[in-house]
Amino acid sequence: MKLHIAFSGGRTSAYMTKFLLDNLSFMFDETIVVFANTGQEWEQTLEFVNNCDTHFNFNTVWVEAHIHPEKGVGTSHKVVNFETAARNGEPFEAMIAKYGIPNRTWQICSRELKANAVRAYLRSIGWKKQDYFSAIGIRHDEVHRISANCERDRLIYPLAEWHKVDKLYINTWWARQSFNLKLKEHQGNCKWCWKKSKRKLLTIAKESPEVFQFPAKMELLYDKAGNPNRKERAVFFQNYMSTLELLSEADKPFDKFVDKFYDTPNGCDESCEVFV
Questions:
Q1: pLDDT for res 208
Q2: Which end of the chain offers a freer environment for a tag, N or C, measured as fewer CB atoms within 10 Å?
Q3: Is pTM, for the whole model, over 0.85?
C-alpha cells in the first residue's frame, strides 16, 4: 500500500508530514509528499514549504493545476519548485476563466487547484486511486472538518484519529523549532480566501490591501465566466459582497481580528486542506 501525504503549507500539515515520515513510513511501500500551489499563497507559505524540505528532508513534490480551456477536458498538472512556483495567481486565473468565480455557493477552487491537480500528478506516476491513501492534516480539535466521504476517497487523518493533537500542541511544538511559518493566524495560507470570516478579511484588507488586487481584477474580468447567462454579479465574498465593497468597509471602524480569538468554526484557519 502507498501513502500520499497532502502537505498544505500550514503548521499542522507540516507537523503531520514529519510525524508520518519519522514514525509510520515503514508501514507503506511508497510514500510521497505533495504540495499544490495556487499562485495566491503568501510568500511566507512558499518559504515555509521550502524550509521543511531543507530542514526535514520532506522531498516535497510541488504541483500546480494546468487548466485546459476546452470544455470536457479535465484539469491536469505541472511540476514546479520553490523558484518556479506561480506567485501572481496564474493557475487561479485560468481556473476562474473556465469555471467562474468561486464562493460559498460555488466551491470549486480547492477541487480544481488542489484535489484534481494532485490526483493528476499521482496518476502520472502510475498511482491508481485504489492503491494509495491520502493523509490529511486535520487535528483532533477540528474533527468537524473530516470528509463525510473519507472511506470512499481513501482519506486518513493521523492527527485526529491516531496521534491526537490540538492547536496548542502544534503551536508549542513549532515554537521549539529552528524555523516556523511566519504568518499570523488570520492570514492563513491563501491571502484572501473567501472562506475566512468577514472580520479576518477586513483585518487583512486593513493590513495588506494590495493582496486584494487579484480578486478585484478577477471580478472585473470574469463576471460571466462559467455561466454567460448569469443575471446576478459574480463575487467572491459572503453575502454577495464584492472585493471593492470589502475594501471600502475596511476603511471604516471595525473590530479587528486578534489572533488569540477564534471566528467561525468552519472558516479558513491556517490552511485550506485538499479533499476537505
A1: 97
A2: N
A3: yes
